[in-house]
Each structure stands twice: as structure tokens, then as C-alpha cells.
Amino acid sequence: MKIKEAVFVVSNSDASKCPAPDRPEYAFIGRSNVGKSSLINALTKQNKLAKTSSTPGKTQLINHFLINDEWYLCDLPGYGYAQVSKTERAKFMGMVKNYISTRQNLLNTFVLVDIRHEPLQNDLSFMQWMGENGLPFCIVFTKADKLGQGKASKMIAQYKRVLKQTWEEFPPMLITSSETRQGCKDLLDYIQQINEF
Ligand code: GDP
Questions:
Q1: Structural domain span for residue 69
Q2: Phi/psi class of residue 181: alpha, beta or left (left: φ > 0; alpha: ψ in -120 to 50)?
Q3: Does 1 fall in a domain?
Q4: ipTM exceeds 0.85, yes or no
Q5: Directed axis angle between helix 86-102 and helix 121-132, to 10°?
Q6: Does residue 53 line the site of ligand 1, with CB under 6 A?
């Protein structure tokens, strides 16, 4: 799929004010600093569509972008800020989980993880929750350019070893880099496949 047009629609903290669920939607989520904004900008070939930031955790908003007038790209707020209290974090994850589990037109969630990191507990618990609730997701490894091919394969093998402890089947996995655009086409083709289904 080629992205011809990407338009910012609305940003808000209230799920009920999000756009009407009148088109297929795909969400992106991950820990803060995982490279989510950079990936959205790389996918849409717009440098400033999603805001990349060096001060994570400031805005916890749900952003909607309309792509090719066909589908919504939903940029969900990042999780895992050290600065935020446990209570606030739980409240925030409650809001995000509520959104993901009730949004009727949400067809897939891309869960981003930094390819350099060992599997992290909050990513694993989030995926566990998705699986237990039958919510479709893919794991998207980000920043692949920061590792050589060999090291990247090792990190993915390690991720799979950890997932294997609780999962019978692996979710689909994509390896990406916003710097080199590695995996961008695969991710967009994945969306197209679901759209055409
Ligand atoms: P977000 O908080 O998840 O939206 O993360 P950002 O997109 O703001 O990225 C966090 C930092 O990682 C920034 O300094 C980005 O330049 C850097 N970054 C993001 N994606 C990549 C990538 O694919 N390759 C490299 N080398 N750096 C990246």
C-alpha cells in the first residue's frame, strides 16, 4: 500500500470524542521513546505528523490520523513512564485498555518494542492482556538499524524464547527502522491485507 494522504483528525483524552468508527482502524502503542512517532512519520513520509519528543510522558492523548481517506491510524499514548505514579499509570492503562477493547472498528494493534531491549515486563503483560482478550496484535521491533543483522536475529530469538513460556503461537512480528525505512512496506502491506479481507 502507498500512503498518498495522511491527515491529522483529532487529539483527545476522551475515547467518546474520537472519530466515528466509520472506517477500519489500526493502533500503534508502546513504551515511551520506543520510536512510535518516528515510525508513524516514516510510514506516512511526513516528518512532523506525529510529534517525536525528547521529553516523554507529557501528553497522554489518543491521536487519530486519516490515511488515504480510507482508514484511521490511531496513535495511542506511550506507557511505562518512570516519572508517573503507580496509581496514575494504572488509571492510564485502564483508559487505553478500555479504548482497545471497545473500539468497534479497531482491526489490529501494533505493539512496538525496541529491538535492543530484552523483553520487558510491562510489554509482556500488555501482550498477555491482548491475547487473553482475543485482541489481534503484531509485535513491531523498532530501531533495527541500531543493531547488525546477527545481533537483531539474536534479540528476536530471545524474545521468542520468553514468549514461548506463555504463548502457544507467536503473534506476527515485523522488524522496522524509521531511519532506513526497513519494514515500512511490510507493515503497510499487512494493513492492506486486512483492509482487503
Ligand atoms: P516515541 O516516544 O515512541 O514517539 O519515540 P520517538 O519517535 O520520539 O523516538 C525516540 C528517539 O528514538 C528519538 O531520538 C528518535 O530519533 C529515535 N529513533 C526512533 N526511531 C528510530 C530508528 O528507527 N532508528 C534510530 N536510529 N533512531 C530512532
A1: 6-196
A2: left
A3: no
A4: yes
A5: 30
A6: yes
